[in-house]
Amino acid sequence: MPIDVPARVIANRRLSDDYNVLTLDAPAIAAASLPGQFVMLKPGIGFDPLLRRPFSVFAVLRDSTNAAIAITILSKRIGPSTRLIYDARPGHRVECLGPLGRPFTLVQPPSQAWMIAGGVGLAPFATLAEGLRARGVKTTLFYGARRAAELFYLDAFRELDVDLVLTTEDGSAGEHGRVVAPLDRRLAALDAASPVMLYACGPEGMLAATARTAMKHGRPCQVSVERIMGCGLGGCYSCVVPMRGDAGERHNVRSCLAGPVLPADRVIWD
Amino acid sequence: MIDDCLVGVDLSVTIGSLRLKNPLIAASGCFGYGVEYADVVDLSTLGAIVSKGLFLAEREGHPAPRIVETPAGMLNAIGLQGIGARRFVDEKLPELRARGATVIVNVCGTTLDEYVDVSRVVSDAEGVAAIELNISCPNIKEGGIQFGCSLNGTFDVVSAVRKATRLPVIPKLTPNVTDVASFARAAEEAGADAVSLVNTFLAMVIDVETRRPKISNVVGGLSGPAIRPIAVRMVYECRQTVKIPILGMGGIADARDAVEFLIAGADAVQIGTANFVDPFIWNKLLAGIREYLERHRIARVADLVGTVDAGERAVGPKGPALQT
Predict the structure, then answer these.
(1) What CATH architecture applies to the domain B2-313?
(2) For residue A176, what is the enclosing H or E element?
């Protein structure tokens, strides 16, 4: 059951000229959030911008008693709302509705988990990595960005025992190129008897390529999709993703309710 | 003294044979089928909810992107994605009834016959309070607005459905006409129990970098606070023209906006886009309307309807004078 709070901004950490991490005082939402779920944020007051924006819960912060006290969100400045989020100062209030959506399904050992992130698509994987580590799942993050300076939180993932495979489009760190290339090679090299679940989040082209690669190697894949979303609760039907049903029929599915995490082999990537 | 008698205000409103516990109605296309919101709002506390528009058959609607934000508003072209009237009756209506919701079904059609057929399916079901006739969706090629943009078409659809159902019939009017009041009159003459207005304003947004429209349907319907003054004017004009109740809507975002529509002549109000921004808006609206009525010493919300003081030009029914 989602709740809505005027969450106080506790901290705003700017990672670059367009990426930032906002910490929001929202203990009830933090306590209820599962990996892959999202919140709908309205960072400004008034009618411009009018609608909320969806953000994955990036991290759940806990106090010394392990009680959830805050969430963070990873944002990339693109439009008016993300500009407000980039410019937010401690003490500001951000309307925060959540947690929303269908979370990731976590695997158990002996299955491995391979997370594939492109750019701001890193957002849902910190909480997922935590959840997987708690289950003792061996986890790898394939993480692609435009350049070295936009590969964030590598140490945090290393601390969660996550193996990193990095790519940059300009070759300034890791492998030169797109993140799906090393994924494809590693899947080809993986013993067919060794189970692995793929989890992907990032630009649409990357998700489609990841889904194709997963299918080529016969591996299951969960994708976290991002769509223009009006309400986050299933009311507006704006965030639909075309998917195949059991009989192969095409349906427009609301990504806020059925997703944001969807089975990659059911999504119609066109 | 009225002060001593005023222990509470009467928020109930009457729409033809339909009595609503308060004037707040969730607008079609902005509240899913209602069940989606059962976790955030007690559906039985709303005056009514209006379902998404329903044809006989299921529809997939338009490809994404389906919405884009505009100054103080949003443009949408969903394309009436929906599960069809029969599945609604079978799969959604029982839960809505169990939760105590007052359900108005938004009926769509590509032909006159389909409007009648959908209305019959809905009328045969238990637990539907009224039919809202969607003759005003700007986003589909066939049906809908082709009836709603013609006085004869409006008359014909309302007449045909009027004969096919015992439920209150409430055509939803488009603002994309020169004189919306003449359409309200056509609906009244055809036997409508009330009219809903306004649907969205046909509009367009272009990405100047790519020179492509920002939604897949090229054009869509504009809603939100940006359209409110035009919608208020249209409700006012219709109030001068017809006697049947009016369900007013268009950009209502807080209680004062709702009160403005009531004063302009709406008997009840519908909330659409604002529910996307704040799904918990209902209690705030209700509290705000109650506070307004108490502050102005008005015992019944119905007494506020159509009380705009437009001087000598006001033609409509007058309620009690405002006390300040």
Answers:
(1) Alpha-Beta Barrel (3.20)
(2) strand A175-176
